[in-house]
From TrEMBL:
It holds the Pfam family Peptidase_S9. Residues 215-349 form the Peptidase S9 prolyl oligopeptidase catalytic domain. The lineage of its organism: Bacteria, Pseudomonadati, Planctomycetota, Planctomycetia, Pirellulales. This is Prolyl oligopeptidase family serine peptidase. Keywords: Coiled coil, Signal.
Length: 685
């Protein structure tokens, strides 16, 4: 027994060494994430295949139903089928015990299909552990999430319930089947009294970023449609990778929650990778800029409006995440509540958990503060542009720090704004929230510490006369900066497209909403670039399933409809000869092919040999400028980044030129010979 125990300890140490540390810093030797699972015996494979086929027959019959309730609940059944399908097809059962778990998942899928066929849905009125599903708007795939429904939950009545969103830790083997099984059998680390706990899947192991971020929001929205969630008592919580996700939701969505409790994890990329991974970083200038998408330290001021309780084990190397946030908050005049588990490594100390729960219970009594008189907000991108009643419409320049402090003064009938790096704002106080005199216009006092080069002064103080509040005690006003003067109203539409929320780049932003891959049906201009484009398309389809657990929608260039153009970002591969859709828009793109098609034209000044170079970019679709078109790229981080969640950040900006003579690898699609951001009007800088 002693020898067996020693072997188990050694195996755990080897596993830990493989998962983190210098062994994962070699881009030429990247292990598979998720790992390759066990080979199923013919008997087991036939059993699971047979059970899956029978379940799919039942699902097909349910899809034919005209009952709206059946259709709305069908994802609650389909998640079991899709989980087992992928587990079998992609060898994602990793241990003999996982076979038994797959059997339980498959059996629950059959039970639900049978119940729904008979007009019943018992899981919708079940307390305890429940697995639910929804159809994602990104790629139409069904995605699972778990709910812990308290025994005290009343399925009839008007009571609304506090809801905690719990983000799970990193699990390279947490594929759908195993996640669903865990949510069917384990309560998890938290289960506060009289509280719904939502466990998003987050589309696997991405620290709840990109599609994982949208998954959390979609899971929460679905839970709101199924349970009586108190909108003013939703918290965001998590530990380890879930702690990282909690930090990023806290700083990017400060008005969505009444409290945040991040534990361990990471809160930014460069310093964490140095300390935790021992990695020597050599980023390009645009990678540094793009760290600002998810580095929470730059957004620390947003926690002024969100009660935050951080936790770290005293001996945990991931304590660095809260330490660096504590420093960043201190720079903003804020003091972080940081609980330390004594003599604790990577775990939540039970005494600390009790303290956290007590603090949260007290905060939940008040809930989210809707009557805020001051909003502090920082952003680097219009992807994250809102906090409570303040929305940033326009930045001076993306990826530079932009700040707003807005304060209401009821006694003076005034809103005071201090801004920097911002060119457009909306102020929107909902019914009952405007504390102003109904008979007087609201004054807007603006102090602008502008970094905009067209401004004649560093500080610009103005007073504007805004509208009066409405009789329901609501108040709305939009303002914009014209030169060095602020004006009431929105900016006149003098140019066709500008960077705005949801249309601001970089390339990875297109994969946070619905997208369709537009595959070429013809032969490309040059054999090498043709083969490269098709390989990159295959890479996107394959890695979208592996890393974001989705089935990418792929259509031929000749199949793209007006509805597709209206509803979806289009991810176009190839060149004007191979891809008919790309040919139809190429003249309206800032990077295109020369008339003789031998060169790529970057604007009107730079030429690159098209036989060995390919463009990648994101740009407003000329056929529908409210949606993106992406040329020759999937999400831009590659296999090397899978090994540590802090690496999972954008690798390319708005556009790049790739020399395909350097083969694609685990870091890049080829050699990046030029790259950059478009300006705020989507023009080449």
């Amino acid at each position: 027994m002693r020898n067996l125990s020693a072997c188990l300890v050694l195996l755990l140490l080897i596993s830990s060494a493989l998962a983190d540390g210098p062994g994962d810093n070699v881009a030429d030797h990247v292990r598979a994430v998720p790992p390759v699972g066990i080979e199923l015996s013919d008997v087991v494979r036939d059993e699971l295949d047979g059970g899956l086929a029978e379940l799919n027959k039942k699902i097909e019959q349910l899809r034919k139903s005209n009952d709206l309730k059946v259709q709305s609940l069908l994802p609650d059944v389909e998640i079991f089928s899709r989980a087992i399908r992928d587990a079998i097809a992609h060898r994602e059962l990793f241990h003999k015990n996982d076979i038994g778990k797959a059997r339980q998942v498959l059996a629950e899928g059959h039970a639900r299909a049978d119940a729904l066929t008979n007009g019943n849905a018992p899981w919708t009125t079940q307390t305890g552990l429940v697995v639910r599903g929804f159809k994602s708007r990104i790629d139409d795939t069904v995605q699972p999430y778990g709910v812990v429904v308290p025994e005290s939950y009343a399925f009839a009545g008007a009571s609304e319930y506090r809801t905690d969103v719990w983000l799970h830790g990193r699990g390279e083997r947490s594929t759908e089947s195993l996640f669903i099984h865990e949510r069917m059998n384990r309560v998890g680390q938290i289960s506060p009294a009289n509280t719904l706990v939502v466990h998003p899947y987050g589309r696997y192991s991405n620290a709840f970023k990109f599609a994982g971020e949208i998954d959390v929001l979609e899971a929460l929205d679905h839970a709101k449609s199924q349970y009586r969630v108190d909108e003013n008592r939703i918290s965001i919580r998590g530990f380890s990778m879930g702690g990282a996700g909690c930090w990023q939701f806290a700083v990017h969505y400060p008005s969505q929650f009444f409290a945040a409790t991040p534990g361990a994890g990471f809160s930014e990329t460069p310093e964490f990778l140095k300390s935790f991974q021992g990695e020597t970083l050599t980023p390009t200038w645009y990678e540094k800029k793009l760290w600002q998408l998810y580095d929470c330290t730059g957004y620390a001021a947003n926690l002024f409006n969100l009660p935050t309780i951080a936790y770290s084990g005293e001996l945990d190397i991931q304590k660095q995440a809260a330490d660096i946030m504590e420093q960043a908050m201190g720079d903003q005049g804020l003091k972080l509540t940081h609980l330390i588990g004594p003599q604790t490594k990577h775990a939540i100390h039970p005494d600390s958990l009790k303290t956290i729960e007590n603090k949260l219970a007290n905060l939940a009594v008040q809930g989210r503060d809707r009557a805020l008189t001051t909003v502090d907000f920082t952003t680097y991108t219009l992807r994250y542009n809102r906090s409570f009643w303040l929305t940033v419409d326009e930045l001076t320049e993306h990826w530079e720090r932009a700040t707003v402090r807005a304060t209401l003064s009821a006694s003076e009938n005034t809103i005071r704004l201090t801004v920097d790096g911002v060119r457009g704002l909306q102020l929107d106080l909902a019914a009952g929230d405007a504390p102003f005199n109904l008979r007087q216009p609201v004054q807007i006092e603006i102090v602008d510490f502008s970094t905009d080069k067209d401004s004649e002064s560093a500080t610009n103080r103005q007073i504007l006369v805004g509208p009066r509040p409405e009789s329901d005690r609501s108040w709305q006003c939009q303002i914009h900066r014209d030169g060095d003067q602020w004006k009431i109203g929105s900016r006149p539409a003098t140019i066709r497209v500008v960077k705005r929320h949801g249309l601001q780049g970089p390339i990875d932003d297109a994969f946070m909403e619905r997208f369709i891959i537009v595959a070429p049906s013809g032969k490309g201009l040059h054999p090498e670039t043709d083969a490269w484009a098709k390989s990159e398309q295959d890479h996107l389809v394959r890695e979208w399933r592996r890393q974001f657990r989705g089935d990418a929608i792929v259509k031929q260039d000749t199949e793209i409809s007006d509805d597709d153009i209206a509803s979806s970002h289009l991810i176009v591969f190839g060149d004007p000869a191979s891809n008919a859709f790309l040919k139809s828009i190429q003249s309206e793109l800032p990077i295109t092919w020369s008339e003789d098609e031998s060169n790529l034209m970057v604007g009107d000044k730079k030429r690159v040999d098209a036989a060995h170079h390919a463009p990648v970019m994101i740009y407003p679709n000329p056929k529908n400028p409210t949606r993106y078109v992406v040329i020759n790229s999937g999400f831009t981080y590659r296999e090397y980044a899978y090994l540590n969640n802090a690496r999972q950040v954008p690798k390319l900006p708005d556009w790049a030129i790739i020399d395909i003579r350097t083969p694609a690898d685990s870091l890049w699609p080829g050699k990046v010979v030029d790259a950059g951001f478009f300006d705020e009007a989507w023009k080449l800088k």
